[in-house]
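Researcher: Batch entry, complex prediction.
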Amino acid sequence: MADETSATPPLILEDFIPYRLNKAAEAISQRFAGLYRDQYGLTRPEWRTLATLGQFGTLTATAIGTHSSMHKTKVSRAVFALEQRRWLRRKRDDIDRRIENLELTAAGRKAYAALAKVAHAFEEELLSRLGPCGETELKAGLAALENYYR
Amino acid sequence: MADETSATPPLILEDFIPYRLNKAAEAISQRFAGLYRDQYGLTRPEWRTLATLGQFGTLTATAIGTHSSMHKTKVSRAVFALEQRRWLRRKRDDIDRRIENLELTAAGRKAYAALAKVAHAFEEELLSRLGPCGETELKAGLAALENYYR
DNA sequence: CGAATTTAGTTGCAATTGTGACGATCTATT
DNA sequence: AATAGATCGTCACAATTGCAACTAAATTCG
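Model: Structure tokens for the complex:
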């Protein structure tokens, strides 16, 4: 072997799975974020908090963080912002008074319903563009990944 | 219809493609980032810059940003950091003197080679855990996505 | 040519995010 | 019951990021 350095396998970023995954996720997220940002002025942590609460009804801040993998200060700030909008209410737990039980107000539920619709439409559009085959593959691939890192 | 609000389809985050994609990408990225962070103290923008330069040889800062979708200030700072380490050199272009041609030093190429090896190993491990079927599905799914947003 | 526009890269500043410490409360152990 | 340790949420502060203005240089066009 004449030249050692040229023998090292180069890394082709376009083929590297973590890179591709990141870029795809980022691209899709940006598009979707545009919708809730433009229509409702929501940040990403706020949207996630809203969506998590909308799905589960009543949760603590910690539970929201655990479920949506957000740092607790992020959740704390998102909760504050949503509270300012009167989209959620806090209620101190009577039994464990460290805990706040968070739930959406009527206005919050209304916004959530509208955004859930937007989200579903977005996903449907995405999947339809992938075609039935792409959809199956993507879902299977994601499932395989989830199985890996969980 | 008795109750209008309950008729809105709830959004199940665990099934929502953008959410799943994001979580998967984040999880994989974190793992991989641990490797170059712990072993080399590299940040993510630094790693991306190193990898892009390692792959393409000589590039301008703008080209790195375009290729790796990083904001130009991010690239600027990453280039500065890598320069401090003596992992890359700048050369003013003789024809267009606004431009800096960036290239890795010997030390930079050495680090790149080592990290490329780590990256390949990481990817191989990941794919082997997915199994041949998961690998095919994931790659097909990613390809479908890339085809969508490009 | 020479003024206006565009491009490359940096820097200051503002917004966002993460870290660590904190007060309050609960639980476990003795 | 009392002390020690864990947990919940917040806040001050530090690091990271993004935006906008800037310098320097090239290009366009009258």
